[in-house]
Design goal:
Blueprint lengths: L4 E3 L9 E4 L1 H10 L7 E5 L5 E8 L4 E10 L7 E7 L5 H12 L3 E6 L10 H18 L6 E2 L3 E2 H7 L5 E5 L8 H9 L4 E6 L7 H9 L3 E3 L8 H16 L1
């Protein structure tokens, strides 16, 4: 069923007819070859899940919302990841897997040792399409936000918006996370995980993050790849916050 799940803008109610546009409309008509009356699932901007019946027309695709299956709800904790942009196409993997895990947002970061210099709007738009596709395939009821690329300094400025910020640093003191995280994450509803590039964060960046309120943490004695570290951290934090 997730393959027939699509996302619509705004908040809706049972009985409304909503238009489906762009790539979703093409997928319904040309790839899935669905017809009027076929059932799909639609998720609105509030995260409400509807059963809908297609109304195929000559010039567009629409659907009537016939049943509210799951009401919108608030997550117990919201996790954002500020990921230093890795080289090659590794970011596409990061986007897909963070979306599957349930991260709320991904913030691409240009840090001091980032090899890739800049990520233009074309790349960011591609990452957003991957996040949307991953949401459909994994069955989540929202699409992970992919923000515009920012400098590391801008991430530090935003740390005050979160209850807890965890900066993954390979030379941070190695302390068992099972002992440290319960205290750090107690009652936290907004959590930011900051991941460095292939070369890691510089001491200057780590100190700036700590001055902004971040806690430096280690994921153990082994150094993980940048495209792996964030996924591991998100999984651990989600387990901790339930």
């Amino acid at each position: 069923m997730p393959a027939r799940r699509f996302f619509i803008r705004d908040v809706h109610q049972v009985g409304e007819v909503v238009a489906i546009e762009g790539s979703d409309a093409r997928k319904i008509a040309r790839v899935l070859r669905l017809k009027s009356g076929d059932e799909i699932e639609l998720v609105d901007s509030a995260g409400a899940l509807f059963a809908a019946a297609l109304e195929m027309r000559a010039d567009n695709v629409a659907a009537r919302l016939v049943e509210l299956r799951v009401q919108s709800d608030a997550k117990t904790a919201m996790i954002d990841v500020a990921q230093s942009i890795p080289k090659g196409r590794k970011m596409e993997y990061v986007v897909e897997k963070l979306s599957e895990l349930g991260a709320r947002a991904l913030i691409p970061v240009q840090s001091e040792r980032t090899i890739v210099q800049g990520a233009g709007s074309t790349k960011v738009e591609r990452w957003r399409r991957i996040a949307r596709s991953s949401a459909q395939q994994s069955g989540r009821r929202d699409v992970m936000i992919v923000a515009d690329t920012v400098a590391f300094d801008a991430v530090c400025e935003r740390m005050c918006e979160y209850d807890v910020t965890l900066l993954l640093w390979e030379i941070a003191a190695v302390e068992p996370l099972r002992e440290r995280l319960p205290g750090l994450l107690a009652n936290a509803r907004t959590i930011l995980i900051v991941v460095g590039p292939e070369g890691g964060f510089s001491h200057i960046e780590a100190e700036a993050a700590q001055a902004a309120g971040a806690c430096t943490v280690s994921l153990g004695s082994h150094i993980l790849r940048t495209e792996t570290a964030g996924l591991v951290a998100v999984a651990i934090v989600m387990y901790e916050v339930g």
